[in-house]
Amino acid sequence: MFSNTDIMDFYDPTLYERNVGLAPRVDKVYQEEVGELEPGSHVLELGCGIGDVLLPLAHVGYRTTGVDRSAAMLAHFRNRVEAEAVETRERVRLIEAELPALPDCGEFDMVLMPNDLVSHMLTANDARRLFIEIGRRLRPDGDIVLDVSRFDVSYLGYLAGEGGKLERVHGLYRYDGEQWIRVSEQSTYDPESGILIAHFTYEMLGSSGCVESTRMRVLRLHPRRASEIAMLLELSGFEVVAEQNARFPAGMDNVLFRARRVQADTRMPR
Ligand SMILES: C[S@@+](CC[C@H](N)C(=O)[O-])C[C@H]1O[C@@H](n2cnc3c(N)ncnc32)[C@H](O)[C@@H]1O
């Protein structure tokens, strides 16, 4: 199944769908946020993955557009869409693109950035650029909704300290039928750049319990304080209209932001 030293893009649709390792689900939180919109409204999700947030919205009548850079995640999403009734299929459009550049994809009533998508923007300029791009595609009374993992000073301080890294085993996960995967992580944090680098190791175990193959994946994130996100939104022409520690699944300590566009346009950072 795995080749022996396969180093790959972090997001793998099968591992994500089977909840192997870290794959927190936030679809309920976002469905509640979108629930106030008129049926037929147009919703854009950035970093849509395999469609856990967007597909249920298409089901209940919203027009949806999903953007993601991972061809594999989008292919999986497309397969799920294909299995739907024709009226749901017609409400889903998927675009492969690398953010913060946002393709010309129309006008939206709401833009969603679930699962701390903004932490994938490794510089403040990229985060601002993305917010500005979003502002240009939102209708005048449209909102952006996003969540941010709470900035954990002691955890990041530990990663940046003498030991220099965190090593932990996430556990054993059932994969296909009789197969199991052992997931472990090695993370480091560079306080100067603000970037957290997590190396994940996935070991596929045979029926004897021996490791048959190994896969490595790397994830680079920029954890940010909620106050920094609020500032970046304001600098990008948004007003924060709600900030709450809302209804996330157990184990997630995230802040949910809702922000509204107050300026018609803002200059892009260089
Ligand atoms: C944790 S998954 C979340 C998927 C979905 N939003 C959900 O909540 O189920 C993050 C997704 O963001 C995508 N992503 C990360 N950085 C991106 C970037 N710079 N441009 C486009 N997509 C990105 C990944 O490919 C992945 O599918």
Instruction: Using the CA coordinates, give the radius of gyration.
Output: 19 Å
Count of spatially separate domains: 2
**CATH structural class of the largest domain:** Alpha Beta
CATH topology of the largest domain: Rossmann fold
> Helix/strand/pairing class, anyone?
alpha/beta
Output mean pLDDT. 87
Distance between the termini: 44 Å
Number of helices: 8
Give me the CATH superfamily of the largest domain. Answer: Vaccinia Virus protein VP39
The shape, in one word, is: globular
Helix proportion range: 10-25%
Please describe the biggest sheet, giving its number of strands, its sense, and whether it closes into a barrel. 7 strands, mixed
Structural commentary:
It contains 8 helices and 12 strands. The chain is an alpha/beta fold and 270 residues long. It has 2 domains: 5-11 and 153-221, no CATH class; 20-151 and 225-261, Rossmann fold. The strands form 2 sheets. The protein has a 7-stranded mixed beta sheet with strand order 4-3-2-5-6-12-11, sandwiched between helices. The chain has a 5-stranded mixed beta sheet with strand order 1-10-9-8-7. The N and C termini lie far apart (44 Å). Bound molecules: S-adenosylmethionine.
Feature tags:
Rossmann fold, 270 residues, five-stranded mixed sheet, 12 strands, binds S-adenosylmethionine, alpha/beta
List the helices and strands and how they pair.
Layout lengths: L4 E4 L4 H5 L9 H8 L7 E5 L7 H6 L3 E6 L2 H12 L3 H4 L2 E5 L11 E6 L10 H14 E12 L3 H8 L5 E9 L5 E11 L4 E11 L5 E11 L4 H10 L2 E7 L9 E8 L9
Parallel strand pairs: 1-10, 2-3, 2-5, 3-4, 5-6
Antiparallel strand pairs: 6-12, 7-8, 8-9, 9-10, 11-12
Bound molecules: S-adenosylmethionine.
